[in-house]
Specification:
Number of strands of chain B: 2
Strand content of chain A: 5-15%
Structural class of chain A: alpha+beta
Radius of gyration of chain B: 24 Å
Number of helices of chain A: 7
Low-confidence stretches of chain A: 1-8
Largest sheet of chain B: 2 strands, antiparallel
Oligomer: heterodimer
Helix content of chain B: 40-55%
Distance between the termini of chain B: 76 Å
Low-confidence stretches of chain B: 1-5, 30-38
Mean pLDDT of chain B: 85
Distance between the termini of chain A: 73 Å
Largest interface: A-B, 46 and 37 residues
Structural class of chain B: mainly alpha
Number of helices of chain B: 11
Strand order of the largest sheet of chain B: 1-2
Mean pLDDT of chain A: 89
Helix content of chain A: 25-40%
Radius of gyration of chain A: 38 Å
Order of helices and strands of chain A: HHEEHHHHEEHEEEEEEEEE
Chain lengths: 346, 258
Amino acid sequence: MSHEHNSVEPYGAKDGVDVVSGVPVFPMGEHQLRKADLDPKAAKRAEIQVASMFGISALSILGSIISYIKVPNESLISVPVIGTVNANHVSVGTLFGLGIFLIGAGAIHWAKKLMPDEEVVQERHPLTSEKSERDEVAEIFKRGKAESGISEYKIIRRTLLGALSLFPLPLLVFLRDLGPMPGTRLRETIWEEGIHIVTDATYRKIKAADIQIGGLINAVPENLLEVEHEDENLNERGKASIILVRLDPADIVSQQGEGWDYEGIVAYSKICTHVGCPISLYQQRTHHLLCPCHQSTFDLSDSGNVVFGPAARRMPQLPITVDSEGYLVAKSGFQEPVGPSFWERG
Amino acid sequence: MALSRKHPAVLATVIGVALGTMGAAYAAIDSGTKPKTVMASQTQVEEGKALYLEGCSSCHGLAAQGSEVGPSLIGVGAAAVDFQVSTGRMPLAAPGIQAEPKPSSYDENEIAAMAAYIASLGPGPAIPTAEMLDTTGADLALGGELFRTNCAQCHSVSGRGGALSEGGAAPSLLGSSPKVIYEAMVAGPANMPVFSDSVLPVEDKQAILAYIEELQANKNPGGNGLGRLGPVTEGLFVWVAGLGILLGVAIWIGAKAK
């Protein structure tokens, strides 16, 4: 067993190929004995090293339990490079991690230094089974077919085929019933004619005169407050959120509809038409609305058209006007579905 | 710029007048009267005009009407001047994508004078008073919500800023004073939209300022935040350091013992 491998051809000896000359990619060379094989002192040293690793591991594990109990959870310490950290977390983590690591490290050190150092070669077996084994399996199959009589019992064979082809059918019915179909909900928001536009988070009505040119307001419909949580308040918020910006009317190149702005104030959906990130990253000088997720950029002075990025559709615009007191209201709901494209949208 | 090329004599005269006025103003201050009024006095406006003509008019025009290289400053208000000049964004060191902050070239009195001059040209947002910047008793939770709704999209939830389009970037807020942040909200510098007091009232701004102060004072107890940029730096760290350590261990396991 010991040094047999030196007589084995390194490679290329199969398939009728004979290596005439060449340098093996991974030359084995002469077997090098380790220090621990030659010097009992080195072996003793390795033994102590392995034992120390296991010993320190045991102490670290115990230490991690003690520091979990003893180190106060509130104390912060400063560790170079890592910064200010919780002393409890760091001590428990370091000691427990060290404990686990040293068990593995000790085992590897043990195997490398002290366990038998052999180089062995094993021929790879062919993947196919022996011919006799394959014939045996074919024989079993044939015998099974004959004994079951599947060729003779015509009615059994046909009913079995029928049963097998029908059993996946219920899955289709179950899967179809996983939830109600979205219906028209993807096309509709709670915006309607006359709904007040209110600030997000503080829900205050907005006077048109209060918005300066270059101003940005994150807004929602006032009737969002009437939608209960159980009635999908978050979904409605997700669809109905808008941003209001005031442009110099002279800067407006185009809009999605005639007179959809109010004295330069335009309202656009806040939901990116690519994959639906909420975006209000509005740059007032360029009138660009940038989505930080995939860098789709919309020009709010030009119908919300896409000027850059993966979004395939313009940002839907909400037609707005003011009520008798000068507060901003929706002139109608959105005229096209907001948010990312969906299959049936066409 | 075009002006200085065409009429070097005009520029020399302007500088001469400016220096003369400045000298006179300094003499007035040195004489011991120390006029410490909050209201912009006529002298302050005069002094500001002189400083404006010297340092700003080459781009913004002799009457602050703007030019091809600089916007009009009529109606931008004192807040815009204080923001731009006290953070060193103006005067611009070099034309670029956006003005970069640097140590200011003017002292407090000079900035106040220039702000008074620009404010005298047309109504605009004023420099916030100490009372407006007082965050004691502000609603921190509301501030957090307003910050995430109105500010985080550009300045990131940690307030460290972020990228904009065409090479621009929103600056970090962690080194900014409440006054400068307030001024930026009402003035809307560069690509930042305007959040005027009429739509984001003073109490809301105070809540936001309180929240930003909380972000600034955050001790970051989780250790090195790696810039708090999220998956980019954290992923890079894990791939380089984490995978590096695993590779090192794998090499050690595979190495032949001696």
